[in-house]
Structures are given as C-alpha cells and as structure tokens.
Amino acid sequence: MKTSIATVSIAGNLREKLAAIAAAGFDGLEIFEQDFLQDAASPREVGQMIRDHGLQVMLFQPFRDFEGLPGPLRARAFDRARHKFDLMAELGADLMLICSSVHPQALGGIDRAADDLAELAGIAADRGLRLGYEALAWGRHVNDHRDAWEIVRRADHPALGLILDSFHSLSRRIDPDTIRRIPGDRIFFVQLADAPQIDMDLLYWSRHFRNMPGEGDLPVVDFMRAVAATGYAGPLSLEIFNDQFRGGSPTGIARDGHRSLIWLMDQVRRAEPSLAVDLPAIPANIAVRGVEFIEFATDPAGAPELETALARMGFHRDSLHRNKAVSVWRQGAVRILVNTEQTGFAHSFFLNHGTGVCDIGLRVEDAANTVARATALDATLFSQPLGPQEMTIPAIRGVGGSILHFIDEKSGLDAVWKVEFQPTGAPEPDFGLFRVDHLAETMGYDEMLSWTLFYSAIFDMQRRPMLDVADPDGLVRSQAIASPDGGTRITLNGAQSHRTLAGGFLADSMGSAVQHIALASRDIFASAEAMAGAGFEPLEIPDNYYDDLRARHGLDEATIARLRRWNILYETEGEAEFFQFYGRPLAGGLFFEIVERRGGYDGYGASNAPFRIAALKRLLRAKDMPRA
Ligand SMILES: O=C(O)c1ccc(O)c(O)c1
Ligand SMILES: [Mg+2]
C-alpha cells in the first residue's frame, strides 16, 4: 500500500514538512501550491528536494472553480490550467486535483461539466498528465461523489478520473457503499480524513477540524472498505486541515498520520477479510488484562514520602530487586515499584521530571505479539542494558517519555517477580485495594488526539466520549480509554491553561505524566477506615458537597453521614453507583484515588471533578504552594 499525506496537514516550512513526512515512512505527498510559494527554491528544485527525501509527488492540488463557466471566464480557466500544467511539469507531478466549483457564475449541468473536463483532460493527456475530479461537500452544483462520478463517467476520457475524499462524502452522510458501484480503475486518488461529530457549517468544519482516521467520529473504515471493494490500488493520502496540527510538531503529526493509515487498513482487512489489502500481517489489537505494575522514579530523598503514602494505603514492601535499588510495594494484585537507582532510564527520567511514574507494566496475553503490533504501528521500542539474572521484558515508549512494559504468562515473563526480586518477608496487611482501576495521564490539550490514537490503535481499548471538566481556572478535557470489559482504563486529561490544576502539574513535572493513580477497593468504607487508622490523610470535601448530594440523589441521612465521615464522593449512572475519595498530593503533585464501582458503573465521577479540583486547590493554597 502506498501512503501519502498532503503538505497542508502538518506544521513547518516546506523543508521541515518534507523531513517529517519522509521520517514517518510515507511514500509520497500531495503538494499544495502555497507550500512552495513561500520557499525560495524554484518548482524544479522543490521537485528535486522532494525526490531527494525519497518521496514522490502523488498529487498537485487544488485547482479550483474550473468547470461550468460561461464564455470568457471559461477561456480564462483553461489558460489558468495550462499555466498549472507547466508548473506540474517542473515539479514532476502528473496528477492534478480539480475540486468542484464554488464559482458564483458556474452554470451547473452534468454534461457541461463533463465536456469541460473532457476537453481539459485532452490537453493534460498531451502533456502526459492526468486529472482527478473531486466533489467538495460545499460545491456549488456538485457536492456529492455520485454526481462527480457521473460527470467523470460521461466525460469518458482516460486522462480523467474521480478523486474521493472521505470527509466530503461522510460529512454529508452519503452512504459510503455507493462507492462500491464505481470501477476502481476510474478512481485516480483517495484522500482520507476523519473529524469529530460537530454540527457546523461544512466548509468551516472541513478547514479547521479534520483529524486523522480513527481520531474522529466519521465511519472512515466503512468508507475505506467500499473503496477497497472497487479494486482501487492507488495511494491512500491524508488530507487533514486542522488548526491544531498546523501549529503542532511536524514529526509527531506525520507519525500519527502514518499510524492512522496502518490502523485503518488493519481494520478494513479484519472487517472484510475478502478484500485485498496490501499490508503485511500484524497481530490483532492487543487485549490488556490489567496493570501489572507501576514504577516510580525517585531518589533516596524523595522515596520516603512516597513509601509513607503507600504504607498508609495498606501497601507493604514485598520484595527487593537483586541488583538494583528497586523495591516492590504490593497489595493484592497491585504492584508499585519504587526505583531510586542513580543510573539508567529511571534516573534520567527522575532528573527530567522529578518523582513520578516512569514505567507502566501491562499484563497481556502475548508480549511478543504486542511488540509486533506496536512496532507495525510505528511505536518506538525501548531497551536498556541488563544486569545479571535480569529478564528481557519487551517495552515501548509511551506518554511523556515514559515506558510501557509488557508482561505475559505465555512466555514466562510473569516470573520476573521471583527471578529478579527477593522477598522481604514483611507482614502483609490488606486494606481491600485489589487492583488498579485507572491511570490518569495529564498532557497538553494538543497531545490528546495523539495518545488516544496510540492506545486505541495498538490495544483493544476504545475511547469514550470526551468530557469537559471545569477547573475554576480553565477547562480541562478528559478522554477515557478503556478495554471492553472495563478492566483496564486510562484517562487522558488535556490542560489548556497553566492556571488549571492539570496545567500546573504539567509545568511542575516538565511534561506529560501520570497525575493520579486510582486503586479499586472491594469495600470503600472499610478501606477508608483502615487507611485512616494507618495515618492516611484524605482530601477534605466541604459540607456543601454533601448538602448538594442529599438534594441530588435523595440519599438517606446515614449514608450521607458515612460518605461525609470518609470524604467520599458519590455518583450514579442509572442504577450503577460510584464511590471515590482522594489522598493529598505528594510533593510533585501526584495523588492517589480510591474507588469502588457497583453495578457496572463505567465512568470516573465527572460530576464530582469540580469539587475535587476545588478541594485540591484550596489545599495547595493553604500549603502556600506556588501553583495555587
Ligand atoms: O477546502 C478546500 O478548499 C479543499 C481543497 C481541496 C481539497 O481536496 C479539499 O478536500 C478541500
Ligand atoms: Mg480533498
């Protein structure tokens, strides 16, 4: 499969774009004239620069307002086209995109458009060029790929074909299966884009909110299945107009784009196995069976605060690494590693970010398969030198320069706790915390799509609808991603303002990182009591929260009193119930949460978030921390 991306999709000057597109592994690109008008090089030199990067110019675009014009305007449009053909020859581009006209004087008429395009195709063919006709969703007379195809069909010229663009078809809710009746060899080019479902003017939506396939809400997989069913074997090209991407990291956005195309074709193949998809076989989305461990990087000065917090939640120091300054704190199936090594990855993470989560271990069926899928989807492998008796545990890079390790039973990686660690024999309390409920990662708002794509493309984890959380000092967006059984959950919180709690954390931790860890309790009241007995200090929730709760849920006084006693927040989802309370943040701003889900509750207590944030901010102000 040949992959391509439009230069408008990413930030930077032309040279930065080319470097990023090539590094991400694309075969070619669509070039927008504006992109090289700003460059000092001539079109011929630009063409050479592109080829020097190992890239092919797959499409020159767009040529606007061509078809259906009256008299002198028509003649001028042909002149304009000839001028562009000259330019294409210089660039080394042989396919031009003509988008359906929005010209106020365009006359309309299927046959008139077909005649104009056929005549231009003749001129193009003489120069060895081809034309593709695309229906813009807001085209004046042609705004539907079915009409564009009818025009191409009637024009009946071998140098004229159809260009499909998933955004234009899907934004108008045109059934993608109508593509299945178009012959694949008459489709000259396919552009792909997704978009979040928002009710808005089509042109504005298209020019500002497109995103990578899989990042939005449009049925791009169904669209692509229909395209594949036609036998189309040309390039798959991303054409993403997105304000955020234009200001983002060229290499990051290009990598996301490449990842999105591989994931898209993987989904097409799985949804419709009879389709010929030119993509090497890769393992299916990886089922995650839970969090095997969470590793903190810290130093001997930072460890005691963390270890005290763990002990107060009922964790005990279970075992010590045989070679390294790493201890395992355990309760039930929850393992939290405290790494105070003075060399290696954890130490460099600590130097960059302070005490924080540097590594997350996920339990999977087959670690080798996991890495195979992750690398096929452009993830970066991670490894570091091993000491004696240490096991090779596969890993990739994750959020904020942290690491994801994969542990399985199949290849015996779960023996690591016995092989690399020595038990302390410390007594084993049980405060009822039995597994990791979710990890909350905080990041800049502009990183959210990228990490959502990362988790949902590699793992069998799906995103839930995005929520807005009102921090008194700005909005925080929250995107939950969860395995189908809800057993593994990650929330991504995107901060737009540094005045928000999330934004302050981001600044303090020097980048994206785990901001809180939620642990599941079998009985939250019992856990709260046991923890209080061990010296745990909860985040105090003000009385007005409980007055509000009484009004909202009609809970009886005894229940309200119990919730208030332990600073537990409450939320319902139909009949399902959710209970949660928080610890006070550690020095770096990270905190723990204890939750109990009853009756299949699937959320995260969004209605309580403003209270939690306000309480945290009050606490930080009281401590006179600079963030407050
Ligand atoms: O927004 C536009 O004008 C525009 C131009 C060319 C395209 O291929 C397209 O999909 C949109
Ligand atoms: Mg397009």
From TrEMBL:
Domain VOC: 290-409, 435-583
Presence of the UniProt keyword Metal-binding in the record: yes
Principal EC category: lyase
Residues reported to bind a divalent metal cation: E134, D165, Q191, E239
Protein name: 3-dehydroshikimate dehydratase
Taxon lineage: Bacteria, Pseudomonadati, Pseudomonadota, Alphaproteobacteria, Rhodobacterales
Protein family membership: Belongs to the bacterial two-domain DSD family.
One Pfam match: Glyoxalase
SUPFAM superfamilies according to UniProt: Glyoxalase/Bleomycin resistance protein/Dihydroxybiphenyl dioxygenase, Xylose isomerase-like
Organism, as annotated: Paracoccus spongiarum
Recorded superkingdom: Bacteria
Catalytic activity: 3-dehydroshikimate = 3,4-dihydroxybenzoate + H2O
UniProt KW Metal-binding keyword: yes
Pathway(s) annotated for this protein in UniProt: Aromatic compound metabolism; 3,4-dihydroxybenzoate biosynthesis
EC numbers, comma separated: 4.2.1.118
